[in-house]
Specification:
Blueprint (H helix, E strand, L loop, with lengths): L1 H12 L4 H33 L5 H58 L2 H13 L2 H25 L4 H10 L2 H9 L3 H24 L1 H6 L3 H52 L14 H23 L1 H18 L21 E10 L3 E11 L4 E6 L5 H9 L6 E6 L2 E2 L5 H5 L2 E4 L10 H6 L7 H10 L3 H4 L19 H15 L3 E5 L7 H15 L3 E5 L3 H4 L4 E6 L2 E6 L1 H7 L2 H7 L8
Parallel strand pairs: 3-8, 3-9, 6-7, 7-8
Antiparallel strand pairs: 1-2, 1-4, 4-5, 9-10
Length: about 600
């Protein structure tokens, strides 16, 4: 069932390469005609030279035509290869675009649940594995019918026996090709899974190398990687064994069929047989013509067998690609009406309900109103539903039940790309891309001047450390920001929010895991960032929460308390109990 679905998907996306494939088949058909012409010319030249005693000068024009035919065949082969490359490139471009767009629709929540190396493997290795299918196998599947049929039309008028030998033996080659290569797709799928696991494991090991060294586990991980590599090697060799076995069987069948033709012609020349030529006598020209066409008749079928492993590889790769494309979108749809007019943003959660699967309820009848220009801190234990609420507001998850209004507009009806232009997001673990500090700050805006970058860096307290770096704001941040400390990376993310100058700022644990100095600098930056903006902040730290105009306490997907620090302390409820229990700094 899965294999059939993969083949159907490959056939469906083949529409993007149909033009190039058809032109390749047309060229291949012309090549088939030239094969017949070449065999006829060779047979004629040899017959005339040795049987009729024609001089070399008289045969010179035929040699010229023969050279021309060979040159045209070479040109056609080059054209077919070029068209195959174009077909493959077009399909791979479309598939990569579909994957990227669908991963975008799946959203960051889906991406965070997957191993980065597995997604990278799907976008790179699995898509590249489609190359042979569209560049060689698909055109050859058609040519395996067109060229033998063309040669058969030329052979049958000369000898019905040779034509019958071709006709009877030809189906045996694809039959055994399919029988032997039947399990190749499954082997390729297992091989891709092994490659994906090995890639993910290797990336995890590189990222955690320091931890492994400290706990003396680096040798163990090296052995695990070696084991994964060996499994991948064995899988690759299993696939190659099937491919070589298939090629060997096809070569044997082809050799037997050609030998049968040669034996028939030899017996005819020795006058042991006298049928199959429609009552005519077998001449050297006729015999050479038939014998030269015999290997050419089977050549397209042999090439199809050679490229059959490309089909198996593509079917195996399609499994992983389809697994991503079939995944249901979790993020809110991108299409919708634009958000506006833009000013200070008011947010209203109305009876929002969200669950993961059929059991775990993340939000239950959530009702919360945030006034325009208000700074709201959302606190609560881990698993209380804070992150789910944030993901719904950012459009990273689709709303299941209830309504979220932003300035009176239904968030579900908005164009998510347009909505996110008005939102600045500072995550707990900010993503810094390879480049300079200035490049990462400017990421928050499409049109960013150097002066705006410097001002944002000043307000985000980035200049406090960048001035000491060689290159200043042009200093590199390294891979995933590894040249900066956690606090410095958090300040770059804060400066990015200043640079974007969005009316709504959403922060996720902005001071978590920071030392006292970095926490103080971030909190000072937050005060400046909140001025004139609506700000929603998730935090476990009560010192940070006290900066907000309003504190919202969540528990098990519900809002249990809301108010200022003083008001919540006066309620003598959950918030006050947390503070008085001695956990005034960090919530559980």
């Amino acid at each position: 069932m899965q294999k059939t679905a993969s083949v159907q998907w490959l056939d469906a996306i083949a529409c993007h390469s149909r033009r190039w494939v058809l032109w390749g088949v047309v060229l291949g058909g012309l090549g088939g005609v030239l094969i017949i012409l070449q065999a006829g010319l060779l047979a004629h030249v040899i017959h005339e030279a040795f049987m009729e005693g024609i001089s070399r000068a008289a045969l010179l024009p035929f040699f010229g035509f023969l050279v021309l035919v060979i040159a045209l065949r070479a040109l056609i082969a080059w054209g077919r290869e070029l068209l195959g490359q174009r077909a493959s490139t077009q399909v791979r471009r479309v598939v990569r675009q579909q994957l990227l767009e669908h991963i975008g629709r799946l959203g960051p929540v889906y991406a965070s649940e997957q191993r980065a190396a597995s997604l990278s493997s799907a976008l790179l290795e699995r898509v590249e594995a489609l190359h042979g299918y569209f560049s060689h196998y698909l055109p050859q599947k058609m040519l395996a019918i067109v060229i033998p049929a063309t040669i058969g039309l030329a052979v049958f008028p000369v000898s019905w026996v040779v034509g019958t030998i071709f006709l009877v033996t030809a189906p045996l080659i694809p039959f055994f090709m399919v029988m032997i290569g039947r399990g190749a797709a499954t082997l390729n799928q297992k091989n891709f899974q092994a490659l994906s696991r090995m890639s993910a494991h290797f990336l995890d090991t590189l990222q955690g190398l320091a931890t492994l060294k400290i706990f003396f586990r680096s040798r163990d991980e090296a052995q695990r990687i070696a084991k994964s590599s060996e499994e991948y090697r064995q899988g690759t060799m299993a696939v190659l064994r099937v491919a070589f076995l298939s090629s060997a069987v096809l070569e044997f069948l082809t050799a037997v069929a050609i030998a049968m033709t040669a034996v028939y012609l030899g017996m005819h020349f020795l006058h042991y047989l006298d049928f199959g030529l429609y009552g005519r006598e077998l001449t050297l020209k006729m015999g050479l013509f038939l014998l030269l066409l015999a290997p050419e008749f089977y050549q397209p079928l042999r090439e199809l067998g050679t490229h059959y492993h490309a089909r198996a590889e593509a079917v195996g790769a399609a499994e992983g690609i389809q697994a991503i494309l079939r995944a249901p979108a979790q993020a809110a749809p991108r299409d919708g009406e634009p958000f506006g007019p833009v000013g200070n943003i008011a947010i209203d959660f109305r009876s929002v309900h969200h669950c993961f699967g059929t059991e775990r309820v993340a939000l239950e009848n959530l009702c919360l109103s945030i006034e325009a220009g208000q700074w709201v801190a959302v606190v609560g234990a881990s698993g209380a539903g804070k992150t789910t609420m944030l993901n719904l507001l950012l459009g990273f998850l689709s709303l299941q039940q209830g309504q979220i209004l932003v300035n009176g507009q239904d968030l579900g009806s908005l164009n998510m790309e347009h909505w996110r232009r008005h939102v600045a997001w500072v995550p707990q673990s900010p993503t810094l891309f390879y480049g300079s500090i200035a490049d990462n700050i400017a990421l928050g805006s499409e049109a960013m001047t150097r002066s705006r970058v410097i001002e944002a860096a000043r307000r985000g307290r980035v200049l406090d450390f960048s001035d000491a770096l060689r290159g200043g704001l042009d200093a590199p941040v390294g891979e995933q920001g590894n040249l900066l400390s956690g606090g410095q990376a958090r300040r770059v993310a804060l400066a990015r929010a200043f640079a974007k100058d969005a009316p709504l700022v959403v922060l996720d644990e902005p001071t978590a895991g920071l030392d006292g100095e970095n926490e103080r600098l971030i909190m000072e930056g937050l005060k400046g960032l909140a001025a004139g903006r609506t700000m929603m902040m998730l935090t476990h730290r009560l010192d940070t929460a006290r900066l907000a105009d309003r504190i919202v306490v969540m528990d098990r997907g519900r809002i249990v308390e809301a108010g200022s620090h003083a008001e919540l302390m006066a309620l003598e409820g959950t918030y006050a109990a947390l503070v008085r229990s001695g956990r005034a700094e960090v919530l559980p």
